[in-house]
Write a structure and sequence with these properties.
The chain is mostly beta strands. 0% of the residues lie in helices and 48% in strands. It is built from no helices and eleven strands. The strands form two sheets. Strands 2, 4, 5, 6, 9, 10 and 11 form a seven-stranded mixed β-sheet that branches. Strand 7 and strand 8 form a beta hairpin.
Length: 118
């Protein structure tokens, strides 16, 4: 079991930027596939971005070209840099991580709220 703790959410104006962080417990972070998901009001949870333990990166279509996922293994942390934010990016953002396939990992953070509004 890996404990994941997100931080960095908040209120930002449209067009603004925000960086989310997810810190993982333990000593196996470099072996984990990591990802960011989000769930907006009245919407299903969706994948935002994922980064494997070997650095392969994928993005959900709505955020391509605007968001960047990265990881710092010595700090046990994965980041989500969000630029050109839109009101439709408003959601609770969750971190997820696991040794196997990300889609089957039970390890979730508690979530951090991102609100894009003027």
């Amino acid at each position: 079991q890996v404990e994941l703790v997100e931080s960095g959410g908040g209120l930002v104006q449209p067009g603004g930027s925000l960086t989310l962080s997810c810190a993982a417990s333990g000593s196996i972070f470099s072996l984990l596939n990591m990802g960011w998901y989000r769930q907006g009001p009245g919407k299903q949870r969706e994948l935002v971005a994922a980064i494997t333990r070997i650095g392969r990166i994928d993005y959900g279509d709505p955020v391509k070209g605007r968001f960047t996922i990265s990881r710092d293994n010595p700090k046990n942390t994965v980041y989500l840099q969000m630029n050109s934010l839109k009101p439709e990016d408003t959601a609770v953002y969750y971190c997820r991580g696991g040794i196997g396939e990300l889609v089957s990992s039970p390890n979730w953070g508690q979530g951090t709220q991102v609100t894009v509004s003027s």
